[in-house]
Amino acid sequence: MFVALERLINLEDGYRGRFKVRGHELLLIVVDRQPILMENRCPHQGAPLHTGTLDGAVLRCARHGIAFDLATGRPVDASCPPLRRLALAYDGDRIGLDL
Ligand code: FES
């Protein structure tokens, strides 16, 4: 089942959208024209990631400062699990995910 999150026309660099889908907090961001969907929860200790800072394609969590490479989801400068990313799906002029 396709769950729409956003209209494609609204996706531009710098976009950040928060969504709740089946009890999961999700974060959709656009970097270098690439939409990336992940759980809005830092894999280190669970801080919300939507308050993190972006430097290119690196997202730094606001709580303890661990940086994650958005291309791979892996932490850049620490040992902790990678970001939990979700596959995106498309339907007409919408982006979302398949459940
Ligand atoms: S909770 Fe994100 S770096 Fe610790």
TrEMBL record:
It comes from the Bacteria. The keyword Iron applies. Gene3D superfamilies: Rieske [2Fe-2S] iron-sulphur domain. One of its GO terms (molecular function) is metal ion binding. Pfam families: Rieske. Keywords: 2Fe-2S, Iron, Iron-sulfur, Metal-binding. This is Ferredoxin reductase. The lineage of its organism: Bacteria, Pseudomonadati, Pseudomonadota, Gammaproteobacteria, Pseudomonadales.
